[in-house]
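Need residues for this backbone.
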């Protein structure tokens, strides 16, 4: 059972919004009252509880862990773009656009196959305001938090808020989604799978441990991605990963001493 409720002190408008959201997400709305989160977990034996409040949507997990959408590293990366310092993912996309003689001010479609917390797609949407961006997320609680956050998160800079609103997120896995795409139907397809050698635990990922979907890129996925992409594919991983050993990229984009970078695979022109 997927439960959605409200904060203990919630007005009627929030309660009605929560009921509508639960219905649209195929979740069960529970009237909160003064019941504590631990008491709800004990009563309903669920894996997580979504709580809607005036400040946004929070996903609660057992053992007092919780997750709320925030810009995370996207905020810092946007600040760097504003200062003209660039971004490696933006540069990787620009490499593909240049090879296909597409201007960065033209519309192009971008599929983020592993959107997660949304940071990469937010940066891409900010850098390329004409891009049509769609993300996939196979974990229901992560998808719920990210999709709600992108649609409702308030930011005092209009261009950043607009970047969030332009992103569409579907609850799906790329293993299921890619085979159903027509040939050449997406300009750029992007993967940020779970790293083979994990980076040190990040605070924003700690509550999500055990709730992520571990996906891997194999021959079938690579073949489907290259078939569905009209311009190219980008994979984010560590330089020494087996993915890049098995599928050598046409170009590597990353800093000289980067622990993580982007492999660019060009579609034959």
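Answer:
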């Amino acid at each position: 059972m997927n439960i959605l409720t409200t904060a203990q002190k919630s007005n009627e408008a929030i309660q009605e919004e929560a009921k509508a959201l639960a219905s649209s997400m195929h979740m069960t709305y529970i009237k909160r009252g003064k019941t504590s989160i631990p008491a709800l977990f004990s009563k309903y034996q669920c894996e997580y509880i979504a709580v809607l409040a005036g400040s946004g949507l929070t996903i609660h997990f057992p053992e007092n862990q919780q997750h709320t959408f925030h810009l995370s590293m996207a905020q810092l990366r946007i600040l760097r773009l504003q200062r003209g310092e660039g971004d490696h993912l933006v540069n990787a996309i620009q490499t593909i656009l240049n090879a296909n003689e597409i201007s960065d001010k033209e519309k192009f479609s971008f599929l983020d196959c592993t959107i997660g917390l949304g940071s990469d797609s937010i940066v891409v949407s900010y850098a390329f305001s004409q891009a049509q961006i769609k993300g996939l997320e196979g974990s229901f609680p992560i998808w719920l938090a990210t999709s709600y956050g992108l649609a409702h998160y308030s930011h005092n800079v209009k261009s950043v808020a607009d970047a969030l609103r332009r992103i569409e997120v579907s609850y799906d896995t790329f293993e299921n989604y890619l085979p159903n795409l027509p040939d050449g139907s997406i300009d750029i397809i992007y993967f940020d799978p779970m790293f083979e050698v994990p980076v040190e635990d990040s605070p924003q990922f700690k509550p999500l441990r055990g709730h992520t979907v571990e996906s891997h890129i194999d021959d079938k996925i690579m073949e489907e991605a290259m078939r569905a992409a009209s311009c190219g594919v980008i994979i984010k991983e560590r330089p020494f990963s087996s993915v890049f050993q098995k599928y050598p990229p046409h170009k590597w984009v990353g800093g000289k001493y980067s622990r993580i970078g982007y492999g660019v695979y060009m579609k034959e022109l």
